[in-house]
Amino acid sequence: MIEQNQQSAIEMGVVETGVVTMTTAAAEKVHELLKQENDPTLGLRIFVAGGGCSGLQYGMTLDEEQDGDTVVSMNNVRVFIDDMSLGYINGSEVDYVDSLMGAGFTVNNPNAVSSCGCGHSFKTADGGGEARSCGCGH
Fold it and tell me: What is the pTM of this model?
């Protein structure tokens, strides 16, 4: 059932799961980065850490699966999310944007009640984290 939903979502340019959604552009970019590393044990780790001007900030890195991770496979990309981060980003959409202003991953998070202009830090209704400068100038 999940594969059928993923197939129709892929055709629409989005890869969906119950945990996170990843646009086709994001999945293609992650696949490109993983191919450069040439290590089949790696996947994309998405995490949340304290910091940033809104209290919490997103992070992404290529990493191996760790004990306790939620593992989501999308478009031949494995995504790893630790338990603490999962509560903050559940239902989020990961996108990759390449524009005149720059290129990079963005997270569209329905759990965020406010975010910084840079798009890298956010605050949830439950609070969490302590606001600090993220260096974006906002």
Answer: 0.70
- DSSP alpha helices (H): ranges in 66-129? 83-89
The fold of 2-124 is Hypothetical Protein Aq_1857; Chain: A; (2.60.300)
Indicate the DSSP class of residue 127: B
Phi, psi of 34 (to 5 degrees): -65, -35
Residue 117 has a pLDDT of: 52
The 3-state DSSP class for residue 67 equals coil
57: closest CA among 3, 118, 7? 118
Q: What residues in the chain have per-residue pLDDT under 70? A: 1-18, 52-54, 113-138
What pLDDT score was predicted for residue 13?
42
CA 34 to centroid of chain Cα atoms: 15
Which long-range CB contacts under 8 A does 115-120 form with residues at least 24 apart?
Answer: 115/54, 116/52, 116/53, 116/54, 118/53, 120/52, 120/57, 120/58
Tens of pLDDT along 46-63? Answer: 998 887 666 788 899 999
Could you give the CA distance from residue 52 to residue 55 in angstroms, rounded to a whole number?
Answer: 5
